[in-house]
Amino acid sequence: MEEKTGKNILIVGDSVNEYSLAHKLSLLDEVQQVFVAPGNDAMKDFCTVVDIREDSVEELLEFVLENDIELTIASSEKAIKADIASFFQHNNQKIFAPTYASAYVCTSKAAGRKFMYKNRMPCPRFAIFDKPNLAIEHAKNSKMPIVVKTDEHQGDRGTMVCSSFSIAQSFIEELFDSGEKKVIIEDFVLGHEFSFYVITDGYHSIPLGTAATYKYAMDGNGGLITSGMGAFVPDYKISRQVEQKILQQIIYPTLNSLERNQTPYVGIFGVDCVITSQDQLFALEFNSFLQAPECQGILELENENLYDLINACVVGSLADDYQEIDMEDGYAVSCVLSSGKKEGSIIEGLDDLDETTKIAHFNTKKNVYLEYETKGGRTLTVTKKAKTLSRAIDNLYDEVSLISFDGMKYRKDIGKSVTI
Question: pLDDT of 394-418, one tens digit each?
Fold first, then answer.
C-alpha cells in the first residue's frame, strides 16, 4: 500500500467524540497521521495514541512542535477549561477550539443561564445558590417538579428532576456534601428535548443541524438523567421556523456578544433546548462541542471534507468558503450501550456487525488476547444511517442484538418515542 502524504493532526480527548472525529479524519487523503491525546485503547486501531493528559497544555504544545502537527482539535472540555486555545494561539499554532473566556457560558451552567437571562433569551425560571440552606428553602417553596443542576458538567450525577421536596433536599445536600460550590434550581419544562449546533470561526456561523436527544436512562424517559443514552439526526420535530428562531434569539446574539467582548468563539457551539406541545421554545444550556452520542450521527451525515471545514474556521475563511454544510439526505440513529458497574467483561459480537455500522468506544480496554473488555459506565455507541428514520432504527437494533457483555443495558425506544 502506498504511504499517505499529508497533514498531521492532533485531537485532544479520550472518549467517543474523539474516537468518531479521529476515525473520520484518518480516512482523508489530506491527512497523513492522526494523533489523539490521551485517547483510548480502541483508537489504536486507526491512529496513534499519545500518553499526555488533555489538560497538560504545555506538554501538548511541546508534542505539536516536535511532531510537525499542522492542526490541533480540542473537543475535550477539560482541555478547553485549561485554555488550550489561548495557549496555542499565543504560540502561533493552529487550533480548533474556543478559548476559556469564550466557552465560559458553556462550561459554567450558571454563567450560561445568567447570560441567557441578561440577553432576554427564552429559558426556564431559575435561581443559583452557593449555600445549601438557601437552596433547600427555595426548593421548599417551589412547585414540583423542579430541576436541580450542578454548575459544571458532572456526567450522570449532575442533573436531577425532583418530583418532591424530600428528593430535592436530599440531592441538594448530597451535592454540597460532595464539594459542589454552586447549584442551579430551575422550573421543569415538559416537552421534546433536542440539541442544535453550529460551526463557527468566531465571526460567521453555519448550522450543523438538530439532534433529538435521549438523556434518561430508561425507556419512556424513566430513571436517572444521564449524559445521553441515544439520539437521532436530524430531528424531524424541529421545523425550519424553529431553527431560525434558535439562530435569531439564541445563537447569533451569543456569538455576537462574545465577539464584541473580544472573545470570539471558534469551534462547534451548541444549545440544548426543549419545545413544548404549545410550541414554546426554551434554552436549557450551552455546549462547547458536539455531545455524545449525537456527535457520531452528525459526522455520519456530514458530507464535507472535515479537515477543510475545520481549517476554514481556524484561519477565518468560513464565510468565504462555505454558504452551508452539505448534509446527506437521510437519518442517523445512535444508541449507547452501558455496562453499569460491571468491569472486565469481554465484548462479544463486534466482528459480526455489518461493515456500514459505526461503532465508537467510550471506555473500553484491550486484554492480552486483543479482545475488548468493559470498564464500567457507558461503553459503546452504535450508529446506523438510512434514507428513512424507521429503516435506520430497525437496522440499528438488529446490529445491537449481535453485541453482548455482562450488565449490558440500553434504551430500546431510541427514535421510536418522541415526547412533545
Answer: 999 999 999 999 999 999 999 986 5
The CATH code of domain 7-97 reads 3.40.50.20
Which residue shows C-alpha cell 443541524?
Answer: 209
Strands 95-96 and 69-74: parallel
Query: Is the overall model pTM greater than 0.90, yes or no?
Result: yes
Encode pLDDT of 121-150 as tens digits: 999 999 999 999 999 999 999 999 999 999
Class of domain 125-187: alpha beta
Q: Please, what CATH class does the domain formed by 331-400 belong to?
A: alpha beta
Gap between the Cα atoms of 327 and 301, Å rounded: 5
- For 190-321, CATH number out of 3.30.43.10, 3.40.630.10, 3.30.470.20, 1.10.150.170 equals 3.30.470.20
- AA identity, residue 398: D
Helix, strand, coil percent values for the chain (each to nearest 5): 35, 30, 35
String of DSSP letters for 251-320 = IHHHHHHHHHTT----EEEEEEEEE-TT--EEEEEEESSPPTTHHHHHHHHB-S-HHHHHHHHHHT-HHH
Q: What is the grid cell recorded at 29? A: 487523503
Q: What is the dihedral of CA 86, 197, 200, 326, to 10 degrees?
A: 140
Cis peptide before 207 (omega within 30 of 0): no
